[in-house]
Amino acid sequence: MTNSSSEFDLIAEFFAPLATSPGAFGLKDDVALVAARAGHDLVVTTDTIVAGVDFFANDPPASIARKALRVNLSDLAAKGAEPFGYLLSLMLPKEIGRPFLKDFAAGLESDQTEFAVSLLGGDMSSTPGPPAISITAFGHIPVGRIVRRNGAREGDLVFVTGTIGDSGGGLALLENQAVSTSVETRTRLIARYRVPEPRVTFAPALRAASAAIDVSDGLLADLGHIADASGVRMELQAERIPLSPFLRDLWGDGVDAIARAATAGDDYEIAFTARSPTADARTAVTRIGKVTKGSGIVLLDAEGGEITVPRKGFVHF
Amino acid sequence: MTNSSSEFDLIAEFFAPLATSPGAFGLKDDVALVAARAGHDLVVTTDTIVAGVDFFANDPPASIARKALRVNLSDLAAKGAEPFGYLLSLMLPKEIGRPFLKDFAAGLESDQTEFAVSLLGGDMSSTPGPPAISITAFGHIPVGRIVRRNGAREGDLVFVTGTIGDSGGGLALLENQAVSTSVETRTRLIARYRVPEPRVTFAPALRAASAAIDVSDGLLADLGHIADASGVRMELQAERIPLSPFLRDLWGDGVDAIARAATAGDDYEIAFTARSPTADARTAVTRIGKVTKGSGIVLLDAEGGEITVPRKGFVHF
Hints:
Two copies of one chain form a homodimer.
Chain A: H1 7-15, E1 32-34, E2 40-50, H2 61-77, E3 82-92, H3 98-115, E4 118-126, E5 132-142, E6 157-161, H4 166-174, H5 183-194, H6 203-206, E7 211-214, H7 219-230, E8 233-237, H8 245-251, H9 255-264, E9 270-274, E10 285-292, E11 296-300
Parallel strand pairs in A: 3-4, 8-11
Antiparallel strand pairs in A: 2-5, 3-5, 6-9, 6-10, 7-9, 8-10
Helix pairs in contact in A: 2-3, 4-5, 5-8
């Protein structure tokens, strides 16, 4: 810090106001207490985002914070769990300024209201590397209702919420690998890359699914995880994969656009299998294929021919 | 990775064997389930270590892993909680090799046995920066028995487990800011820097304390946190602060050695206040001072004069 505030001062100023749960002790202790909820299991998940990998160092700090939180809320939602709190580990360069922290905390505050979660605790370290944010999120689910990856069965249908590929389109625009003359297309796609919309409200309805996952690595890659874990094969109809008007404006309507969308990642929609359509009033759900005997995942064109995609999703290593 | 393994392969090979709890789902899902324990609260904490700040990039991978886990177990122990599991977020350069991961996982495995914990889940990302490891640890404590920072009262005594400053001595040796001709001194002090010994077994006895903290920032800084939170003053007798024979061999016996030890940090001993001595059979505990009215913390010499220390502990920002 340029003004020689210690991390204790910074935590007290920017983060303690977010710690509204009594078990967080106002961030004035080393741990948090998490109370049990009768009839519910506790569900936990952790995800880290790193500048230069998962976001751009010059993204607005509020949107970096919201992305860090939301990718975790997405994991909980994809299992049918409802979030209530999170732990935050911040790794920041020494020269980070107070304006960054102020905006970062404001982003968390607005998401805390939107998703009914509060900060339970955390940790703040200096790093000689790029900023990184690691969050552990906590949720509850009625006992025995968790939706795993391994429950898909032959005869189930395959569904996905919302639209796929928007975030990948936003990333391509930010990296100048795509160009759009439409301000709205550019704005909407970049917004989806920077601030995903986790399907938190869909979690209760999702408990009727046989298997589910959130789409973070790419639709094909993530459905591939379900296929592997469940010991089944999936056949997806390319033309049914839901693309937004903004993504169609950017990539067009062809098979190439669909293949890009289905491998782009960072969508934070929920892909799931179920015997019959599962929905709630607030969430668009599209049937995109079916579960069959066998293994792996195939993307079929309108004539039933297999579409080859170069890689199925993002891998770190 | 030089051999093009994805993070999914690496997790399956090196980390899934550590996920022995049923709620971890063999690391084959996005979340972990944490079962409630009757009559107990769940206690959680998170701490991150970064190469170049908290460890050296060329430290043995097994000791990096053990340090990352142990600093978190230390936080739980210092509140009276007993650990049972942890989540691991790994941020590693793309070029990290399998030998690193193999040794890293072996370090975790040996500590899992030693401390009766298991891996519940995690996340692995590439980073353009230095390696960093973020761990969230989970423990249980009988309801209502947590030992906070804010319970110290006038008339309490101040205690610390083990010896103070060894880790700081090890760091000074590694940074060539100190020299020792004794192989044993060098080995023992560096070992304490690299692999702290969290006071996990002391947690049940500690529940008799009025306030407690683990010594990570430095003895004076951390007791200062208790003094602040409790609204009290502490008077410490410098000559009672326990130094190991190895640290005395390095720094000598003088006031300067004590001041260095009390501000060095990374000890992962437990400093606490209590009305009367609190101990168990396995843990050395030394009375080092008393709690009085007022605020702040003073280090007194044998004649009762105040010893001025240049800074009380490590700060990141």
